Amino acid sequence: MYNTGNLVKEMVERHGRNRDSLMPILQDIVGRHNYLTDEAMVEVAKELDISAAEVYGTASFYSFLDTEPRGRYVIRVCKTITCSMKGKNDILGAIEDLLKIKLGETTLDNQFSLLETNCIGWCHKAPAILINDMPYTELTPEKVLDVIKGYMNK
Amino acid sequence: MINLKINDQHVNVPEGTTVLNAAKELGINIPTLCNHKDLCVAGNCRVCVVEQKGARTLIAACAMPASEGMEIYTNSLKVRNARKHIVELLLSEHKSDCTKCYKNQKCELQRLANEYSFGEEVFLDLTEEVKYKIDRSSPSFIKDDSKCIRCQRCVRTCSQLQQVSAIAVANKGSHQKISSFHDRPMSHVVCTNCGQCVNRCPTGALVEKTYIDLVWDAIYDSDKHVVVQTAPAVRVALGEDLGYDPGERVTGKMVTALKQLGFDSVLDTDFTADLTIMEEGTELLTRLKKALVDGDKEISLPMFTSCSPGWIKFIEHKYPKLLNNLSTCKSPQQMFGALSKTYFAQKRNIDPSKIVSVSIMPCTAKKYEADRPEMRSSGYKDVDYVLTTRELAVMVKQAGIDFRNLEETKYDSVMGDSTGAAVIFGATGGVMEAALRTAYEIVTGREVPFKNLNIAPVRGMDGVKEATVKIEGTTEDWNFLEGAELKVAIAHGLVNANKIARAVAEGKASYHFIEIMACPGGCIGGGGQPIPTNMEIRQKRMEAIYSEDENLPLRKSHENPEVIAIYNDFLTKPNSHKSHELLHTHYVERESY
To answer: What is the ipTM of this complex?
Structure first.
């Protein structure tokens, strides 16, 4: 949970109150906090004078606009064919063992969430993952542990 | 004009006409599901696909405008095969427990399945794979996602007609569903229970919550005295579900049918509609007096009507700051309920604990209204069960009544008398007209200055109507209103209600009195009315309402003899202490999502 506070107001000031502003507002909130709280969606709905169901409907359409609580770092493991063939399952298993969470879960300290994603366009350097917006490619189980340990120490 | 050929027949249509409507001109029927006359084109169910000569793919007839020289085939082998597959694909994601479904034989998908898909199942039944949600949280309706084909009629209804958008499309692909905010229970979101979505759902995904069996139980309980009241809009629509054309009035036959069903007293909501006019009219005049003469700054004007429970819930969610502008009068249904277990019980010498109060309403929000905790001023639940017009038709069929050949009979007494002013409550503008007929006469001692009492400016299907009535020749008590111009407005459909409410909230409206009905056309177009309901059908029901009014001997609420009697015997006078106890209510602020 994060404090909605002036966040929504700030985004609305930046992008305006038109219906077209909905996407950039939601993207910016997620950009800062990784997911949309119910309060944030209700607040956006009020500011844009649309219904909260409509905001939720829009957000839930996009995989990257999460409406469930997520950790500070969202790890998305590419599940599409090339990455699968190049060892995606081993990567996933290594992360699960390191963080002691399963796919879809968030660590108790709210630092990491582990999700799958559809193709992120790094087939030529498979297997790939995203951590927030940053891609990591040509991974091995050893390499991915180093990457995540780097985030643990941040 | 555009010339095109459909199934080798020539047809001329104005520019912009869809292929679907062009085909109708020729009497060619193209099946549809997501299409609805009240709503914008969606083109998502694909059932209406047709073949266009020279085009590579099939086109959706509902969304494609006719163009010059077009050659369309609506029933080629390619079309038939595609349509069959489309129906079968819809069925593979639709829980087909038809014999147990409330919409059995009234389901548009079932009708298509009957035409296009029989024999072996072609596609896997996917409904067993998914855990669907059935939401029974609202007292008005049930939302069963396993029956949903995602045609989005409900979503378009809630947004375009009602501007509520309590439901929207969520997720995508095979996970797509019609969802409230974060899939919360419908009872916990901004939904007004108006039932317009229920009226438009082609399948059993949205149906009213039925209380038919509980009403039968009460009828067969010899210990109970079951009182039934019927709303004004039911008598002009019930016939449609019993084989009549839209616009046929069946008042007398309906009363006989209710008696044959076994209701102990068959009474009329119109009686309390007349009473509402006395209470609400007096409330308005009192507010005007306090504001204009006493200079009381606390008085909230304009005053909104409060008969429509969908509108009440809408304003509670959306404009809580305007709650003081709502009339404190209960709706006629709830006034009736409270009186059925007090005044009626006394008059007829019946123990009120033995009375079961049932109402027949064109409305699903009335089910919710009857369940509100405020609605127990008789010491009991004032209205026990609310049935829609559709449910009454089901009961008539269940009882094997030959409705068409019934004698016409009159309502029982007391609380069965009514006037034309009460009947027109069922159409948009009706409450306003009834109120003006009485208020004008109270203030001036003369009839309202419109030919034959018909106040034409407040009638009709315009979304927002305005009128000004100049008050002249007032009696001594009301001379502070001499020369005043009473400004009124009327809105129906919450999209229009929202326009007026916003203007009032922003201080941009100069009205004194505003009538609002949540449903398009008013109660005649209510969510509990026969399916289909659309513009043409609402128009016919409206005409029927006004002819019912014209044919009644009494057409002003204050002339209703039973209304005069209840004030003499029981309530003393409008807005008395007793009236406030039984006939008035209060409202609550609600969340805005």
So the answer is: 0.92
pLDDT tens readout for residues B373-403 = 999 999 999 999 999 999 999 999 999 999 9
DSSP state of B51: E
Backbone angles phi, psi at B99, to 5 degrees: -70, -20
B593 touches chain A (CB under 8 A): yes
A54/B593 Cβ within 8 A? no
Phi, psi of B104 (to 5 degrees): -50, 125
| pLDDT for A1 | 58
The 3-state DSSP class for residue B496 equals helix
Domain ranges for chain B? 2-75, 121-206, 210-593
Q: Which residues contact A60 (CB under 8 A, 6 or more apart)?
A: A67, B170, B171, B179
Residue position matching structure tokens 């009834």: B434
Closest CA to B109 of B87, B141, B135: B87
CATH value of B121-206 in 1.10.10.10, 3.30.70.20, 3.40.30.10, 3.90.1150.10 = 3.30.70.20
Report the residue of B160, B161, B165 to disrupt the A interface, i.e. the one with the largest count of A CBs within 10 Å: B165
Top CATH class, B210-593? alpha beta
- The residues with which B62 forms a beta bridge, in sequence order, are none
Looking at B365-506, list the stretches that DSSP marks H as alpha helix, in order from N- to C-terminal side.
365-371, 389-398, 420-423, 430-444, 494-505
Single-letter amino acid, residue B319: Y
Interchain CB distance below 8 Å, B180 and A53? yes
Identify the burial level of A106 via C-beta atoms within 10 angstroms of its C-beta, where 0-12 means exposed, 13-18 middle and 19 or more buried: buried
Active site residue B374: yes
Domain ranges of chain A: 7-61, 73-152
- Residue A18's alpha-carbon distances to A23, A48, A66, B231, in angstroms, are 10, 6, 22, 42
**DSSP secondary structure, B157-224, as one string:** IIIIITS----EEES-GGG-EEESGGG--GGGSS-----HHHHH-SSSSEEEPP-HHHHHHHHH-TT-
Alpha helices in B319-429 (DSSP H): 332-340, 343-348, 365-371, 389-398, 420-423
* pLDDT score recorded for residue B129: 82
The pLDDT confidence band at residue B116, using thresholds 50, 70 and 90, is: confident
Percent of chain A with pLDDT over 70: 99
CA B391/CA B78 separation, integer angstroms: 41
Specify the CATH class of A73-152 in words: alpha beta
Residue B493, token pair as written in the block = 């459909």
Find the helix packing angle between A88-99 and A141-152, rounded to 10°.
Answer: 40
Structure-token pair, residue A131 = 């951590």
Q: Which residues pair with B489 in a beta bridge?
A: B466, B514
Interface with A, mutate which of B182, B319, B495, B590 (most A CBs under 10 A): B182
One fold for B121-206 and B210-593: no
Q: Which residue has the tokens 């699903």?
A: B364
Would you state the pLDDT for residue B117? 76
Classify residue B117 by its DSSP letter: -
B167 close to A (CB below 8 A): yes
Cβ–Cβ < 8 Å for B15, B67? no
HSE-up (13 A, CA, CB side) for residue B116:
27
The arithmetic mean of pLDDT across residues A106-133, rounded, is: 96
- Which residue shows structure tokens 């003393």? B572
Rounded Cα distance, B247 and B250, in Å:
9
Q: In terms of CA atoms, which chain A residue is nearest residue B155?
A: A54
CATH architecture group of domain B2-75:
Roll (3.10)
